[in-house]
Specification:
This protein is an alpha/beta fold. It has two domains: 1-71; 82-294, Alpha-Beta Barrel (TIM Barrel). It is built from ten helices and eight strands. Strands 1, 2, 3, 6, 7 and 8 form a six-stranded parallel β-sheet that branches. The protein has a two-stranded parallel sheet with strand order 4-5. Strand 4 (195-196), helix 8 (208-220) and strand 5 form a beta-alpha-beta unit. The chain is rod-shaped, with a radius of gyration of 40 Å. It binds zinc ion. Residues 104-105, 155, 159, 199 line the site of zinc ion (ZN).
Length: 297
């Protein structure tokens, strides 16, 4: 073999080795790339899983936080501002065409729950002028009234005229006793209704003078009063549904706003039985229903 041939063979051998090396590098690269791609895919899938798990966890945390945020429905609280004072004084002339259903002398365990069921069914909020002595007997009913969004107002403690109207101090004392009873019944010591209804009304009668003396003194203590400008006469006189409706129709007349006096004492089952017709009549007359939370603000 010539020297040239030997050199040529060596060169060919080198070429073959280089080619093999290149092929090996290419194969290694392909294997590496395929492997890398697989890893990327797995990482991506894992990221997605973690992300979706995080979303679920976040949603769960949010749900828990939301549940913690609203542990109870916020109850409206009456306020005693100049606007509230003016509103209650001018209630019959305020904007709108509003009927305020008011129930005095309760609660009773025979009539009040039935009235509450009906008001709930009709989605109407009313106002209850409570007697302290009866609040103490049926605190759970008062709590229900409060929780269902009705206005709890003050009608004194005893409803015995000779007792409550014996002096201005006696009126104040009955008001305070009733307020305390209401606060205890609803478990809210901050609740002040700022609203009194004189038993028998604020005007006239044998106790007219003591009532008119009491009005400015109560006002100094952030207590306003409200009477009524329509009634069913369910406390005396109306012994049938027809009579109740007749009294309602004649006293409502064409009034702009009406504060309707009714009673939910234990013997006032007829008031409850006539209430659907009372409500229908007021709807027909174009009234919307409200209680005093929008007045005392
Ligand atoms: Zn009364």
């Amino acid at each position: 073999m010539s020297d040239l041939m030997i050199v040529e063979r060596k060169l060919n051998k080198k070429k073959v080795i280089i080619a093999i090396c290149i092929v090996l590098i290419i194969i290694a690269s392909i294997i590496y790339l395929v492997h890398k791609q697989k890893e990327n895919k797995q990482a991506k899938a894992m990221d997605q899983q973690i992300a979706s798990e995080n979303t679920i966890e976040n949603e769960q945390i949010q749900n828990i936080e939301e549940a913690n945020l609203e542990p109870e429905v916020k109850k409206p609280t009456p306020n005693y501002t100049q606007e509230a004072k003016d509103n209650i004084k001018n209630i019959y002339k305020l904007e709108g065409h509003t009927a305020y259903l008011t129930f005095d002398d309760g609660p009773s365990n025979s009539v009040t729950p039935l009235i509450l069921d009906l008001l709930k069914e009709k989605n109407i909020k009313a106002s209850f002028f409570l007697l302290g002595s009866r609040v103490e007997l049926y605190p759970d009913i008062v709590k229900r009234e409060y929780e269902e969004g009705h206005y709890l107002a003050n009608h004194g403690y005893s409803h015995v005229y000779s007792s409550i109207y014996s002096s201005v101090e006696s009126i104040q004392d009955e008001y305070t006793r009733t307020e305390n009873a209401i606060q205890q019944a609803i478990g809210n010591e901050e609740y002040k209704c700022h609203l009194f209804r004189f038993p028998g009304g604020s005007v006239g009668g044998p106790y007219a003078s003591i009532k008119s003396q009491a009005i400015p003194i109560l006002e100094e203590q952030e207590i306003s009063y409200v009477d009524w400008n329509a009634l069913t006469n369910d406390s005396a006189g109306s012994k049938t549904k027809e009579k109740i409706i007749q009294n309602l129709v004649s006293t409502v007349g064409e009034k702009k706003n009406v504060v309707i006096l009714m009673h939910d004492a234990g013997d006032k089952i007829l008031t409850y039985e006539t209430l659907p017709e009372i409500i229908d009549f007021l709807i027909e007359k174009g009234y919307t229903f409200d209680n005093f939370y929008n007045i005392m603000k």
